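Let us work through a complete example step by step.
Step 1: write down the sequence.
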Amino acid sequence: MKNVLPKFQRPIQGIDEPRTEVSHWDKAMDAYDAKDYRKALIETINYMNPELLSGKESDNRISLIKGQGSAEIHVEVNGQIFSVKAPFLKVTDATNKVALFRKIAEVNFNPLTLSQIHLKEDTLWFEYEMPVELCQPYKVYDVLREICVYADDYDDEFVEKYKADFYKEAHVQPMAGEEIEQVWGQLTDILNDYKNYSAFFKEKRWDAFQWDITVISILKIVNMPYVHGTLRTKLQEYVHNMFNGQIDFQHRIDKGTNFMQKLCAKSKDEFMKDIYHADAFISLKWRSSVQILQDDAKNLEKTVTKYVNDGDNFSLCYFLQYNFLYMLYNFNVEELHKNAIYDVLEKVSGLEPQKAAPKLLDTYYSFLNGSTKATSSSGKGLFAKLFG
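Step 2: predict the structure and record it as tokens.
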């Protein structure tokens, strides 16, 4: 097998995928500091998803209802009170109530930090409210994200484990014919690349790179905005485990390899049942800004510098590939930053490491310096000469 980098193709655009506009965050913070609490709240919502208030009156009462996967998020600003509610499960005669309520009590202590789950008649609700003057942007962001994340995550788990029912059918849109073939083609490429590179690293006895190709493959799939259901839950679980330094490294490789083998054995129909477009109130990823992404890049600088000084193009390329994908996994980035990463990963697809390294480096340093552009460097920038 020729020693070139794995292929990458950017995912197709998700329908109603929330897009971040960082300028709204600055406006929200300025308004809160000026004690214009209502404007701060409105700009925080605009930051999280500008489409939510588009075309709506926001001078008086604000009322929003929108799906988040299979959950439904209700936001009300009535008078001086801001409230968030999310009905997400029905308790039925078939439900294992004792086990479910014990789990709800546990969740209310941890991981929930602001909202709580309450039982009203036969429906479980996430709820939180506070006076508008306490709607500091970070707090509003945290409570909305918390409810959206856990309402969307726990419903599938609780239905499966405790025989609860969904509050309502999720508002989803199945993939169209051409979309199905395009997505399946991308998945097939990712899984075939995984099998080929895993076999190559095994033959070379480069065991550490089994971790790299496993993480790269999982992140490529989980970053697709139309991957949902139990598939997404399992992918997120393995992302967490693969990056968990408290778990023995070889154990992580073994578990990740086993998981990837199971994915490779899944049929097209098995994959496609968890692949569809779904409503999203907000992105479930963490808030981003130029500074946040700079800080993230700064955490990589020591390792990047070592690989550059050692002339280790191979390690550098794999390190930057999976860290760019991990950045997209963790942060709700603006289109500018997303496209910069997509651009460079597509440009280095199938290139030998010595040719790919300068391109990846230019994009990395643009994040480090806060100078990212929508189209990545061609590789003739400041750091290209190191590998020319």
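Step 3: interpret the result. The beta strands are 62-68, 71-78, 81-90, 116-120, 123-131, 165-166, 172-174, 276-278.
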